[in-house]
Amino acid sequence: MYLVEGDVDSHNNAQTAKTALVRLGAQDGFTVLRTTGTNTTIATYKSMTRTVERLYSDAVGPTSSDLACPTLGDLDLSISEERSLSVREVFNVQLQHIPGIGKQVAGALVRKFPTPMSLWNGVMRDAEGEEGGAGGPDVKSAAEKLKFIPLGEGLNYRTIGETKATKIMNFLFNVPQAL
Fold this sequence. Notes:
Blueprint: E1 2-5, H1 14-27, E2 32-35, H2 38-56, H3 72-83, H4 87-96, H5 103-112, H6 116-127, H7 139-146, H8 162-173
Parallel strand pairs: 1-2
């Protein structure tokens, strides 16, 4: 469950924030609660606490010593062990949060470049000497190296394409596009 406080429309990246909220709810299955400010957030937490207390006030832990209730520390440890993600998995999720970049494109990119640094080293480093804005890397040259990455096997040679490749490079490395 996520609780979002305040007006998402006033955020610097309002469209990205809205997209993330929709994705969390519709695609990832999370409940997204929205509040207008601190007072409504506190009221929401109070209401949720009362509900949990009402639902579980009669609950009793296991009586057998074999089934002892885990401590909060034990739960935290087991959750963190289950939810630890590799750099590759985190990078894949980050790529999917770029508007217009889905699982297929993100998957194709992380198969070739499993980390942001490997992407930089494999694509941007070679483009640094080319005609980039203010002497920096040229996104167009970097995107050229990405656009032909195949999306998968047996997909009739479909590739990432120039538009998505350029979008990825601009989003990840915030490099100004050459005019």
